[in-house]
Design brief:
Distance between the termini: 47 Å
Strand content: over 45%
Order of helices and strands: EEEEEEEEEEEEEEEEEEEEEEEEEE
Shape: elongated
Number of helices: 0
Number of strands: 26
Length: 329
């Protein structure tokens, strides 16, 4: 298959794309790292075998071989494939019986003469072909073309602020919007820097930074035989809150917090001396409740600018509003 290297950087609508192009590198440098199925050998292990229903016990099995390519003109794939062979005759459970299976690269089976459906999967990409094993003569090796590629997802806050991987997750949806306004979910809880293998086409990717309101979306194109690195840009930052008796003082324990948007919508509530959260860019109000008193402070979140927000305790009555300091982390 073609070797790949990241060569193009495009910034548009909060998405940076590093597109893999064919530069003649070795296969192991690029799609050689597409390993979501454990495999240690070039040839797959045969996991199951049964004769086609209806064939006599005396039928002589034939050697049947298959290989797969990402594109019609790419090299034969050596690993990362899942092969499944099914009988075309529906079983009593209404499903096609599994005849044989293997994981790895090119596949070799012994099958009795008859018809079969052969499926090969490469991550979420796959193709199925109907084949006939002849009773006379040899079976010519079959090549299946996956028409597949992939992408690696990551994200930054602001222009280039690194986001801890534990605070990021991605979901991949089909690009088409259904009649009810939803999209079909393809994959969920995808971690950053994970290679996602998919059939060619456009996919709708949703990135969540933290678990409150920092969400960004982008449509990403998967091209056959290519690996694209997509970096989404979040307009968000991490905010830490603390109630203090004086600027720079220790955080007061047993404090209940509410964070509201400028429109008055509650986006987060917690009980902690020093709560930390990720918020989308915008204006907010922090409300601290300690014993029978309430303190509050307006603050602004700027993309990529992590801050500590201090709310000062100053002779407050239950409804008093106080000033606070906003200190960059």
């Amino acid at each position: 298959m073609p070797g790949l290297s990241f060569v193009t950087r495009i910034a548009a609508a909060g998405l940076l794309l590093l597109t893999a192009a064919d530069l003649g590198f070795a296969q192991s440098d690029a799609f050689g790292s597409f390993r979501q199925l454990d495999s240690t050998g070039k040839m797959p292990k045969l996991n199951a075998f049964s004769a086609t229903p209806g064939e006599s016990a005396g039928s002589i099995a034939k050697d049947v071989r298959f290989d797969a390519r990402l594109t019609a003109d790419s090299d034969v794939m050596q690993e990362g494939l899942a092969w499944r062979v099914f009988s075309p005759i529906t079983g009593v459970d209404g499903k096609l019986p599994l005849v044989a299976s293997s994981d790895g690269g090119s596949a070799a089976f012994q099958l009795a003469p008859g018809d079969y459906f052969v499926n090969v999967a490469f991550g979420r990409a796959g193709v199925t072909k109907k084949v006939t094993v002849p009773s006379e003569g040899d079976f010519q090796k079959q090549t299946l073309v996956l028409d597949a590629g992939g992408f690696i997802l990551n994200a930054v806050a602001g222009a280039d602020q690194t986001i801890p991987p534990a605070q990021l997750s991605f979901s991949v949806y089909a690009a088409e919007v259904r009649e009810n306004g939803d999209r079909a979910l393809v994959m969920s809880e995808v971690k950053p820097n994970t290679i996602v293998r998919l059939a060619t086409g456009t996919y709708h990717v949703v990135s969540e930074y933290g678990d409150i309101n920092a969400v960004v979306r982008a449509d990403i194109q998967v091209e056959a035989g290519k690996l694209t690195q997509a970096v989404l840009q979040h307009k968000a930052a991490e905010v830490s809150l603390k109630l203090v008796s004086q600027p720079g003082g220790e955080a007061i324990a047993d404090t209940a917090w509410s964070v509201l948007t400028a429109a008055g919508d509650v986006v987060n509530e917690s009980v902690s001396a020093l709560p930390s959260m990720v918020l989308a860019e915008g204006d907010y109000l922090a409300v601290a409740r300690n014993k029978d008193k309430i303190y509050q402070r307006e603050f602004k979140v700027t993309a990529g600018n992590n801050v500590d927000v201090e709310v000062l305790m100053r002779n407050a009555n239950p409804s008093d509003a106080t000033t606070a300091a906003v200190v960059p982390n």
